[in-house]
């Protein structure tokens, strides 16, 4: 199992299609014979033998009237995987606001004597997942520009905006090295503009000749990781890059014929960020004589430099399009900090749950914000009712624009649905959130029928044993795009071949390499 991403932020033009959803009328629609055909066809799709030992929950409703067009186990609690992000992202938009930004500050205590600071220099974070090594470098440059050349005290990393719990309670320990299960800290860094917080890209390339050691580099350059390189140059690329449990030692084995990248988590992001910042200060001629420490910034400390992140309205794009787990968890703790003054999972999840219960989802269990926990539980009926309720929110069009769009090849438009349902009536039509864990798949969102009627749907498939049933999700979504209350669907011509070909065992968000 593995969650995806890879981002250069682009939010223009995503809202145009969403305006129709925000303004759709709420008039009732009379049921017609086409509903009977729809029920029969979805029943047929769900008769797939792969679901015989599994649990399948499916709900379809009219977005204009709320009429239930199809339901199977609508009230059963199922594992949602990344469909949990529908709840977290909506709660973040509602609680934090689309203008919300993370602030990272450099502050000082003590007195200035010329170019010397007789005191400590503090780096205070609030969880910004978009900070790159270059951004810490820019903060260091501003410290130097302020006239500080020597710090006689310590460099202090202040990550107290969040608590010190780094990993989710239910997360599997063997997921720890992988980027989709990175540690959560109020001070973190990303290696690229997918904003995979708490990770470093480890790159392996062929050496000088066959049998010779492979060449290894990291992005950003850092000595925080200890690289143990046992990989050699060979005729094919079959390489394993893995951080050893509870350490920052990265063991590389196998052979490499072509360049290969792996996004590797760091143990203790706060320490990693402190090392990046200390090195950046030295690069800009700022010497810190004291050691690196951790503590809260004292009240009254003087701000030397600061940086604000992009607003949440923009962050929603890489978060939702690429199903970024760490964004979900950071926002969960940020919600807790705002609502209860505690940057903890418990505080954040309590607020997220209250939001969901107040917006059509009375039954849910949230153990994290991303859906990485197998103890998370949502009902298909609750998901569709939430999707209906969100349409009346003032921020809906922006949030809707962040959902993956079926069949659009642009990573920042199609997201985790970019290779699915191409060449079908669902392409460019279905706006939905994917979800994948081993034995779990889900797809929930919005689609417009052949009658131009907006629909909401949720498909949750749990406990299947073999063979990906993602094509079952696609078949249902395509059938909904063909749904007409008055004209029978030409089911024989439902274009499913592409959907079947493009539905991998897991969603693309579990496969980090650039090809994904």
Automatic annotation (TrEMBL):
Keywords, comma-separated and alphabetical: Carboxypeptidase, Hydrolase, Protease, Signal
Signal peptide feature range: 1-28
Matches recorded under Gene3D superfamilies: D-Ala-D-Ala carboxypeptidase C, peptidase S13 (3.50.80.20), DD-peptidase/beta-lactamase superfamily (3.40.710.10)
GO biological process, one term: peptidoglycan metabolic process
UniProt GO MF annotations: serine-type carboxypeptidase activity
SUPFAM superfamilies hit by this protein: beta-lactamase/transpeptidase-like (SSF56601)
Pfam families in alphabetical order: Peptidase_S13
Name used for this protein in its record: D-alanyl-D-alanine carboxypeptidase/D-alanyl-D-alanine-endopeptidase
Organism from which the protein derives: Streptosporangium minutum
């Amino acid at each position: 199992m593995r969650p995806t991403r890879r981002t250069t932020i682009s939010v223009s033009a995503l809202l145009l299609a969403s305006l129709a959803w925000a303004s759709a009328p709420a008039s009732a629609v009379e049921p017609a014979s086409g509903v009977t055909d729809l029920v029969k066809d979805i029943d047929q799709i769900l008769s797939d033998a792969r679901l015989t030992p599994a649990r399948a929950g499916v709900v379809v409703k009219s977005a204009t009237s709320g009429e239930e067009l199809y339901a199977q186990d609508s009230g059963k609690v199922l594992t949602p995987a990344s469909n949990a992000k529908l709840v977290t992202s909506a709660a973040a938009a509602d609680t934090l606001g689309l203008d919300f930004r993370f602030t990272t500050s450099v502050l000082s205590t003590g007195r200035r004597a010329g170019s010397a600071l007789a005191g400590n220099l503090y780096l205070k974070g609030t969880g910004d997942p978009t900070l790159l090594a270059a951004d810490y470098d820019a903060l260091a440059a501003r410290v130097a520009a302020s006239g500080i050349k020597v710090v006689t005290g310590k460099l202090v990393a202040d990550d107290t905006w969040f608590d010190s719990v780094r990993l989710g309670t239910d997360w599997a320990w063997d997921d720890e090295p992988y980027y989709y299960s990175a540690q959560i800290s109020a001070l973190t860094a990303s290696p690229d503009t997918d904003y995979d917080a708490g990770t470093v890209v480890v790159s392996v390339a062929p050496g000088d000749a066959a049998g010779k050691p492979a060449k290894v580099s990291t992005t950003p350059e850092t000595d925080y990781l200890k690289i143990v390189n046992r990989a050699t140059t060979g005729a094919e690329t079959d390489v394993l890059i893995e951080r050893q449990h509870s350490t920052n030692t990265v063991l590389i084995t196998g052979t490499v014929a072509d360049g290969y990248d792996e996004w590797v988590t760091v143990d203790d992001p706060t320490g990693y960020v402190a090392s990046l910042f200390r090195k950046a200060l030295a690069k800009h001629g700022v010497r810190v004589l004291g050691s690196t420490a951790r503590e809260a910034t004292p009240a009254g400390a003087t701000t030397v430099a600061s940086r604000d992140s992009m607003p949440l309205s923009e962050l929603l794009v890489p978060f939702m399009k690429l199903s970024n787990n760490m964004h979900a968890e950071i926002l969960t703790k940020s919600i807790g900090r705002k609502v209860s003054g505690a940057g903890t999972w418990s505080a954040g999840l309590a607020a997220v749950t209250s939001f969901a219960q107040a917006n059509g989802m009375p039954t849910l269990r949230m153990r994290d914000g991303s859906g990485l926990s197998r103890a998370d539980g949502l009902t298909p009926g609750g998901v569709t009712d939430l999707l209906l309720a969100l349409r009346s929110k003032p921020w809906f069009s922006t949030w809707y624009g962040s959902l993956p769009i079926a069949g659009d090849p642009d990573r920042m438009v199609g997201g985790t649905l970019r290779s699915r349902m191409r060449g079908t009536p669902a392409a460019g039509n279905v706006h939905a959130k994917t979800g994948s864990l081993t034995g779990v798949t889900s797809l929930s969102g919005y689609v417009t029928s052949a009658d131009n009627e907006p629909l909401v749907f949720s498909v949750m498939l749990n406990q299947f044993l073999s063979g990906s049933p993602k094509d079952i999700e696609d078949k249902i979504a395509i059938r909904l795009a063909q749904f007409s209350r008055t004209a029978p669907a030409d089911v024989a011509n439902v274009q499913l071949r592409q959907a079947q070909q493009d539905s991998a065992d897991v969603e693309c968000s579990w496969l980090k390499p650039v090809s994904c």
